[in-house]
Structure formats: structure tokens, C-alpha cells
Write a structure and sequence with these properties.
two-stranded antiparallel ribbon; 60s Ribosomal Protein L30, Chain: A; homodimer; alpha+beta; about 210 residues; 9 strands; Wheat Germ Agglutinin (Isolectin 2), domain 1; globular; 2 domains; about 20% strand
């Protein structure tokens, strides 16, 4: 049976089947690309998940197994609403891995999802129910779980970074150079400039700064 | 001295000072809001970090201490280029925590950054150099590290999710309902529709799907 370290559940915060699915997806990507976990800024992941739907927990598993973390800027969402991701590693090309419909269908009738659809949060679901569905993920073969497509020509160019920063001349806080704007001749941060960020994640309704 | 569990470094992939700064930031936010680590979908974090600059590692520390993870959809980037974040917890309001300029300035001359600015990745920096700068973070007081602003009236409305999904009538893959589009009368996924996603993260130059 596939093993997942306890700390990955500790990081994630609860026991559910999708963190392990993502952990296995990341592990398979590394095997197929013949690479190890990324200590620094090696692997980049383009996750096809979006917002407003379940199963995003997969992404915490991907980060835990591959080291391609959100903090290190190595995982992005493509907002396609699919349980799939493309993994790219320098000089190794890419690989797309998607959860098989058949495996999703085989899990769907499980008691775990009956609780979830009633609005019960994962940590409140009985432990034996959670462990049972996790074991199904851990016992499945890679072939039962995933469709795999090698993408040897997949191109990805990581953004070149800069250490330059300056204090905003209005609020006084440090700002990295990319995000400085000019207002009345002064170098200011985006909130002090009154401008919108040029880059945006998804805008959640209801967020008022 | 503040303690950080080994698994948080294991998750992050390397030892650096900014993962611990984020871990402490998240810990302080939980203390001030009088809440515990989020097992499910409680705390939401709006990070002021962007892309193309260092110190994003902070966000891995925030996720590790608070449980507000990327996979669970609980952390977003605001793309302001600042080492700061706002934490919101249901019925508790918000808090903004920013790294003090003075603390950033006190770390800046450290040998760790001389290596980093030469392009040397964190895992390649000598262990004693890394441990020394981490200890500076762990030994500092919250007052030395952070500016804190309570935001009792901060409003945030988490997106309401849906479990509904359908197979794309072209590629056959499952798609969550929010991301289905219509093409020639068929329900299809965004890539099969030829449309652009309505929601986007930051577009990296060089990414060709």
C-alpha cells in the first residue's frame, strides 16, 4: 500500500481522500520525469483546479510530495475545474496527469461524500469513514487512478526575479520594485497609489480591503 | 526561543528565514484572533506578496501554522509586493500583520543574502549560515518582528461551493459546473471551448499550453 507521511496530513489539517490523490499524482510525475522532490525552485505545477468546487485538497498533496509550493511560487491555478495538473521540470519537459473518471465514479458513492454533501466538514466525519476512503486511494494502482500524458515539448519559462525594493513614500512600507507605482512624482505602493494591481488572482465577491 | 516543527521545513523543501517569519506571522494572527489552526475551511489569508521577487517563502510558513492552505482555497495573493498579510476568521474579524522595516533591515546584511544575490539557491547555502539567520527570526520578539493592526470590521465572504460536475462532451473529462462552457450546443470544458478562463491567476510569460 502507498505510504503518505503523517506530516502531510498535519500540514493539510484534516484527513480526506483528495490530499492523498494529489500526493500520489505528484509522486508519479516525479517518477515519470525522473526527478526528486524540489528543494528550491525546480518543478512548476499548473493545476487545472478552480474555485468554488471541492477536491482542491489535491493541490496540498501535490505541494507536499513535489516541493512545488505556493510560497515558493511554483504552483498556479488554471481555473478549468478539473482534477488534473501539468508538471514541468527544467530540462525534463512536462507531464499532464488527470484523475480517471472511472476512479472518481468508484469513489463517488462512498459514505464520505454523503457527509460532505450535507455540509459536514472533513474533520467532523467519523475517523473510520475517512480512513476507509483514504485506503482506497492508497491501495489503487497508478493505472487505476490516473491518465498520463508525457509532454516532452512543453515550454515554460519561469519569471526572472529581482531583490530590489524601496520604501513607499506615502506609507513607508517596503515594496518590491515590480509593484511600485508613481503618484505625484513619488514612488508608492499599489494601495497608496489608488491603482488596481496589474496582476490579480481571482476576485472573491465580498472582499473589501 | 520560538519553535517550528521539523515537518514545516520538510514541506517547504529548504531552510530559509522567510518560511519561519511566515510561520510566526500566522501564529501571532491566531493568538490575536483567539483561534486555533484551521482543520477545514475556517481562516482565509490575503497575502500581499506578488511574483518575481523573493521572500514568498513566508506564505509556506503561514499555511503551515494556520492551516489556511492553497489546496483548501484559503490563501490568495494580492500582488502588492509586500511582506504582509491579512488574516480573516469567521465571526472574529481580521488582522493585518506586516514585517517591520527595521527587522528586514537588520537581516539584510546577513551572509545568507550575499549567497542568495549571487543566485545560490537556499539548499546550497552552508548549514551554519542558514541556521544562524533562522535563529535570529526565532529569537526575536513579536514586537521586533511585526506591525499589527486589528481589523474588527474587515469583511470577507467565502465563495459558496458546488459539488456539481459533468463530463465535457468533447474530451470526456469531468468538469465542475462553474467551468463548463457551451459550444455548438454541447457542454464542454474551457480548453475544448477555445475560450479563455474567466478567472485567471497571473499569466507567466513563456507558458504555452
Amino acid at each position: 500500500m502507498f505510504q503518505i507521511p503523517d506530516w502531510a496530513f498535519e500540514f493539510h489539517g484534516h484527513k480526506c481522500p483528495f490530499m492523498p490523490i494529489g500526493y500520489r499524482m505528484g509522486t508519479l510525475a516525479m517518477q515519470k520525469l525522473r526527478v526528486n522532490k524540489s528543494p528550491n525552485h525546480e518543478m512548476h505545477v499548473l493545476s487545472e483546479m478552480g474555485v468554488g468546487h471541492p477536491q482542491g485538497c489535491m493541490q496540498d498533496g501535490i505541494m507536499a510530495s513535489t516541493g512545488a509550493t505556493f510560497g515558493k511560487g511554483l504552483i498556479e491555478k488554471l481555473y478549468y475545474g478539473k482534477v488534473a495538473a501539468t508538471f514541468w521540470y527544467p530540462e525534463k519537459g512536462g507531464i499532464r496527469i488527470a484523475l480517471k473518471n472511472e476512479f472518481a465514479d468508484s469513489l463517488a458513492p462512498h459514505e464520505f461524500f454523503k457527509f460532505r454533501k450535507k455540509g459536514i466538514q472533513p474533520s467532523e466525519i467519523p475517523e473510520d469513514v475517512r480512513q476507509d476512503i483514504i485506503n482506497r486511494v492508497l491501495k489503487a494502482t497508478d493505472e487505476e487512478l490516473f491518465n498520463v500524458k508525457m509532454l516532452p515539448d512543453f515550454k515554460y519559462t519561469p519569471l526572472k526575479g529581482s531583490f530590489n525594493k524601496t520604501k513607499c513614500e506615502v506609507c513607508g512600507e517596503y515594496v518590491f520594485e515590480r509593484y511600485l507605482r508613481i503618484k505625484d512624482g513619488k514612488k508608492v505602493c499599489i494601495p497608496c497609489s489608488g491603482q488596481e494591481p496589474a496582476e490579480k488572482g481571482f476576485y472573491y465577491p465580498g472582499f473589501e480591503n
